[in-house]
Amino acid sequence: MSKYDVVVIGSGPAGYVAAIRAAQLGLKTACIEKGKNKSGKIALGGTCLNVGCIPSKALLDSSYKYHEAKDNYAIHGISTGDVAINVPEMIKRKDAIVNQMTGGIGGLFQANGVTAIEGTGKVLAGKKVEVTDAEGEVTVLDADNIIIAAGSVPVEIPPAPIDQDIIVDSTGALEFQDVPGRLGVIGAGVIGLELGSVWSRLGSEVVVLEALESFLPAVDGQIAKEAAKVLKKQGLDIRLGARVTGTETAKGKVKVSYTYKDEEKTETFDKLIVCVGRRPLSNGLLAADCGVNLDERGFIFVNDHCETDAAGIYAVGDIVRGPMLAHKGSEEGVMVAERIAGHKITMNYDCIPSVIYTHPEIAGVGKTEEQLKAEGIPYKAGTFPFAAIGRAVAANDSTGMVKMLAHEETDRILGCHIIGASAADLVQQIVIAMEFGSSAEDIGLTVFGHPTLSEAVHEAALAVNGQAIHMPNRKKRK
């Protein structure tokens, strides 16, 4: 029986980062991964690198470049002639990027002394891990500490069974070899909007069916309202309160039945993407007597330090509470590795940014205005449009705004929400500021480069206190 200081189950962003950090801290570490790539080799990187964050961004960027060349170059005085998209080449590029990134993890494992083990891991009693390889052979590892980072998988719904041909999940939507004429998307969440944007830019007529009556309910309401307006203008037909009741495939198409505004309706599509959320991959992961417990939704129960109910066993990433975000899982992995090594560090869950990679991007950190109202926290808000930012106008990319929220009495920043070009990067400035307890005034007194998109963050902070320079300030009510 092989003995390790740390055994990590899962090599996604939570697992591989935990394994690397543990090894850097001098701990003998192994990382178990059951996934395989298209070549049949171990697929390090989990969902994010193989069929999630990275490949979807590759397609988002390719599709946006096509859209720019086709529709937006003329305003710059650039003539291109006819512009065409070669979908198989786009998919080939995406696959090459995935191989490059996952291969990079293998190199990092080797450089840091992490042992990669192919197979499916299962936590046994006594801090042992059973590993079953592709041929069914079983080995058992002995560990002083176990980090469970098994991740999540797409939720399936009975009315739309996945066949990965006509009805696909988020993974299948990354493998289309041509542009669907009509594309249906079930779910107007992050994944649905991103994938819908990809194929809409390339020419699909996209209809998004969302069961909820509100659009992006987790996003600040003002930003969500602006996002709905922008995305609909781009051609996404977003139907809220549309509940899918059944599907029928025939002759290479799918007929979708759904209820909408108290009426029974049907739509026929060439492809249908089902993206209604993800669930923790906890089935078959835990022996009954291992001491690790699940909550009612299948998530592993952990405390604020990602410790399970069994001493020496931790869980991180999508398989535990909190947002299913790669960067959240990675930082949990670092925290756990450090704590195993005896460093009592903690993680600030109040400063985790979230991003939707449509164009314009949608990003936020901290509390939304709706949350502050619900919690009775006194606040003040400042907004600033990119339309008043010279750099954005010069780039022909001036849609959106920055919204800053600060405490009414202390001026401490409580949240920042952005829809606009490079929102994902801009919001990170406020993530850092919030980590240091900054006030809106602190941001307002900071020198920002000109001309930059970041000036919208600066002006929004000034607007919190009625001091914006490049737009009229709203008069405070007496």
UniProtKB/TrEMBL annotation:
Span of domain Pyridine nucleotide-disulphide oxidoreductase dimerisation = 352-461
Catalytic EC class: oxidoreductase
Q: State any single GO MF term.
A: dihydrolipoyl dehydrogenase (NADH) activity
User: Which species expresses this protein natively?
Assistant: Spongiibacter thalassae
Cofactor list: FAD
What does the entry's cofactor note say about binding and number?
Binds 1 FAD per subunit.
Please state every residue range assigned to the domain named FAD/NAD(P)-binding: 4-333
Q: What is this protein called?
A: Dihydrolipoyl dehydrogenase
Superkingdom of the organism of origin: Bacteria
Which InterPro entries does this UniProt record tie to the protein?
Answer: Class-I_Pyr_Nuc-Dis_Oxidored, FAD/NAD-bd_sf, FAD/NAD-binding_dom, FAD/NAD-linked_Rdtase_dimer_sf, Lipoamide_DH, Pyr_nuc-diS_OxRdtase, Pyr_nucl-diS_OxRdtase_dimer, Pyr_OxRdtase_I_AS
Protein keywords: Cytoplasm, Disulfide bond, FAD, Flavoprotein, NAD, Oxidoreductase, Redox-active center
Q: According to its UniProt record, where is this protein mainly located?
A: cytoplasm
Catalytic function, reaction form: N(6)-[(R)-dihydrolipoyl]-L-lysyl-[protein] + NAD(+) = N(6)-[(R)-lipoyl]-L-lysyl-[protein] + NADH + H(+)
Misc note: The active site is a redox-active disulfide bond.
The entry's family comment says: Belongs to the class-I pyridine nucleotide-disulfide oxidoreductase family.
Q: Where in the cell is it found?
A: Cytoplasm
